[in-house]
Amino acid sequence: MALAHTILAVLSHAPCSGYDVSKQFEDCVSFFWKATQQQIYRELGKMQERGWVSYEIVPQAGKPDKKIYALTSAGMAELNHWCDEPSEPTPIREDLLVKVLASPYLPKASILNELRRRRQIHDRLLKECLATEAEFLALPEPHPSDIGRYLTLRRGIRFEQSWVDWCDEMLALFEQSHPFMPEAIGSLHQNNTMNNN
Q1: What are phi and psi of 114, to 5 degrees?
Q2: Whether residues 75 and 100 fall in one domain
Q3: Whole-number Å distance between alpha carbons of 152 and 164
Q4: 34 lies in a domain?
Q5: Quick check: 11 and 71 in contact, CB under 8 A?
Q6: DSSP letter at 103?
Q7: Total domains, the chain
Q8: What predicted TM-score, i.e. pTM, was given to this entire model?
Q9: How far is 20 from 68, CA to CA, in rounded Å?
């Protein structure tokens, strides 16, 4: 998936400024797509050249004029064409898992501290997602444009919940004295290294 398709998806809901697009990235899609404001503005320029978006200049009193971007028929056609393509799983790059992979030979306290820190992060994000969900469910009549946001929010909730659950599982394992846990294997590795020297 290209950044352009994410922007097209955002603009499919309603025309908005580049700043508003970046806010949508922060508020709605940050858990499945990251982009800086500079990247978004640069991509909007390319999309305008391709004819996927158009913009209207809106004067602002005491401020620079604002560009309001809207999806064109060509942009909607591109979004539909892209939707017909198969979506492959995204490769994962997760440095915490690399640390856990090497954990038998690393200080146990370092791994525990990192697991606790990450649990706090994902627990905070989970609570934010749940609060957003509660706001949505309290709406008397959700707008059709809110439905897609809610469905992706559900994925965000499950994503953060799975991280919290996994961190809890790992913390329980690392805090116990299993024979395959880091201290025992680390000592064995250290002894083997000394014997080989």
Answers
A1: -70, -40
A2: no
A3: 19
A4: yes
A5: yes
A6: G
A7: 2
A8: 0.76
A9: 9
Residues 68, 58: contact at Cβ < 8 Å? yes
90 DSSP 8-state letter: P
Please indicate, yes or no, whether residues 9 and 50 belong to a single structural domain of this protein: yes
Residue 18 to residues 69, 145, 158, Cα–Cα distance (Å) = 7, 19, 29
Considering 54, 84, 114, which residue would you say is the last residue of a domain? Answer: 84
Same domain for 122 and 143?
yes
| Each residue's pLDDT tens digit, 56-114 | 998 888 888 889 999 999 999 999 999 999 988 888 889 999 999 998 888 889 999 99
Distance CA 168, CA 70 (A): 45
Distance of CA 31 to the CA centre of its chain: 2
Q: Burial of 85 by CB count in 10 Å (0-12 exposed, 13-18 middle, 19+ buried)?
A: exposed
**What does the pLDDT look like over 33-64, one tens digit per residue?**
777 888 989 999 999 999 999 999 988 888 88
Same domain for 100 and 51: no
Q: Answer yes or no: do 63 and 143 share one domain.
A: no
Alpha helices in 13-94 (DSSP H): 18-27, 37-50, 73-84
